[in-house]
Amino acid sequence: MRAPDRVVAVGADLLAEAVAGQAVEVERVDWRPPMAATEADLATVAADPRRHDANRQAVEAMLAVTAHLVDVAPASELLGLERGQFLHAGPPIGWDRAPGPLRGALMGGAALEGLVDDPEDAVRLFESGDGVSLEPCHHRGAVGPMAGVVTPSMWMFVLEDLASGRRTYCSLNEGLGKVLRYGAYGPEVLERLRWMGDVLGPLLQTAVRAVRDDTGPVDVTGILTQMLQMGDEAHNRNRAGTLMLLRDLAPALVSHGDRSQAAEALRFIGGNDHFFLNLAMPACKLALDAGRDIPGSTMVVAMARNGTDFGIQVSGTGDEWFTGPAQLADGLFLGDFGPDDANPDIGDSAITETAGIGGFAMATAPAIVRFVGGTVPDALATTRRMGEITLAANPRWSVPVLDFTGVPTGIDVTRVCRTGILPQINTGMAGKQAGVGQVGAGLVTPPAEIFPKALARLAALAR
Amino acid sequence: MRAPDRVVAVGADLLAEAVAGQAVEVERVDWRPPMAATEADLATVAADPRRHDANRQAVEAMLAVTAHLVDVAPASELLGLERGQFLHAGPPIGWDRAPGPLRGALMGGAALEGLVDDPEDAVRLFESGDGVSLEPCHHRGAVGPMAGVVTPSMWMFVLEDLASGRRTYCSLNEGLGKVLRYGAYGPEVLERLRWMGDVLGPLLQTAVRAVRDDTGPVDVTGILTQMLQMGDEAHNRNRAGTLMLLRDLAPALVSHGDRSQAAEALRFIGGNDHFFLNLAMPACKLALDAGRDIPGSTMVVAMARNGTDFGIQVSGTGDEWFTGPAQLADGLFLGDFGPDDANPDIGDSAITETAGIGGFAMATAPAIVRFVGGTVPDALATTRRMGEITLAANPRWSVPVLDFTGVPTGIDVTRVCRTGILPQINTGMAGKQAGVGQVGAGLVTPPAEIFPKALARLAALAR
Q: pTM above 0.95?
């Protein structure tokens, strides 16, 4: 079922040929001991007779999903989100423990919804808790990048697995820099969000519905397949994906929308290389949701961060979150920002790595390494290393330079604990002060302790 | 000046790391003897005191060019092409020696221009030569893919090097399959060409002029830089380039064009992954034209094929063509077609390889190998091998997986003769019967003898 050996072998044939005539210095992946105090739980879970079939079932269910873009509509309609209800990224958290960027996004969201006039006034509102509530995106079938704040008036993409009818949701991407999802809430942020609600959302709804009804909905899983052949890893680089979405929606935008608004929308989408991220994420969630709730399965079905806690959910343990402190990313900073300005890891976007792309597909996106501060050898080594902790290679999402081997997919809690290798995540970095916005991008891993926690629960259930 | 050693070394660091833990089988590039009977000419040219500076000057001039899309207009206006005048790909040729696909394209072109009602009647017209004439695209500053037939009513892209004002031209791409450039001339081919003349050309003119005047012309050289980071080698794969062009023109198309025509144009461009090829080609010609006519330079400035002859032009030898028989490509065939159906190599598109992309940039486009029948190791080896016969690495066009090394650029006649390594070209294959259209795609090289011919002329001029 898993194919890392094939990954390495195929890569070697290919790459060995390419070093012709060179003296080759070889770096070996060291054997590592299991994570501390996991031996007993590893033995218990390894002996669970359900495990093998459960993991096979989880992987097969995940790989069978194809995500199609079937609609765009406001969160109030789609998720039943009501005035004062706010969704956020990561595992559950309250205002008291919310980090700066999540607070900033909530403050901006409160102003967007008209709960306050000045975002600064929202601090008292959230401190009091009167008429406001916070809930993870994941609990409503949604995912949100960075702070991941969703309010009732925000428009969302609707992705559907046509075979099962299962759906997931994600807000529309605002672009980079001073944007709500990075915790900025200035007038330009709110103005852009209002335009997205008044103009972009309705236009996209019309175009997405027209495409759906005329030629069939946009195949997001298929675009992801193409992206991975075009230098995108679909987390920090979504350039080709965004262009393909633009290609698929442009004729309908032109045919049905107001002419000048359509041109404005085309410019906005075309000017934001990350626009497709908000389709890649729910496509990954849609696949992973199909692998949930299989008793005995040790496959991770969500990794998500609220900027304070990093949490995972595992197929065999239901909706339980296993959490630990979110880490600081190691990477490159924008302008004069430095490590002291960065908030710990935040966002639901690690759902991409959970599904085998993003940091797991670094080998296919060498251009991204300059953006997150790595090197091309790092990129190839990362994809190879992730093969050590995953259950399968995804045949639909292949890496050309590794001779079209599938990306390593389906993180196995037991393999993580046994090898000590942590999932590699590409991420943007938000400023830790509310209101600052993006300060950089880099590489990060989950806190190691959450995997033994999940393993302990799996072991308890196996006994 | 040339960087192949660096290409190989950098590739090795990168790739060696990626084969960690593997036993590495290494294939060496064998030393090869010079091409037969070239020793004396090689010695003469090597001793030419002008050669070193001339080649440096040719390379620098080529690399300094940036191509911008400044206009779209009919060939009659741009090139002064008159009724009965036909441009074609490759070195000069008459109807008598023209191969099937060129004849088919000329027959269709004659019908398009109203010289005949039925394309079949054009055979007599061209046999008689009355009121018709053939001339290479290259002689009018243009390039044409495959048959490369240009008639007065066809609309063309205009590329300009803003620093020098130098311009090149190329027709609009028709798509794949049954198209004029592959020698098809049926009713659907002519209908599409009429739509391109009546609707697409004028729409593109409006959009290109609006973009040019509003935000500055589209930077085609810059798009090529991006494409090479997105899996395109810009000869047989132009998917990302086409999408970026669409992105850059879509808002203007929407703002200025008729709404339903604009939607139709967006669909046509978005549905044709090769649309950008007709911008990549004149961008390469624009760069190479800057390296022409430098006495003593041994750099190839054009490779072009008319389907019967393969010809090259060299900087130090002016407009002279050195020709030999066009070869059959080795590759994959569409549907039931096989090698017996294919015409020898045809088209001006080898201008991309002349400038260092296409087959020379195979390493950056592993996905293309499945289209032309190669393997990923072939792709990496090809780019490395082309470093043996070129004068420079192009710092603007880099290959991420080779740690951002520039593509091998500026074919040196002396290096080709000294090593026997021939330029590697990716190409489409036209059916050898007029009217058939595309039958496949594959890999091909020039006939070896044209390089000693060019070398002999360089030697004669050096004496």
A: no
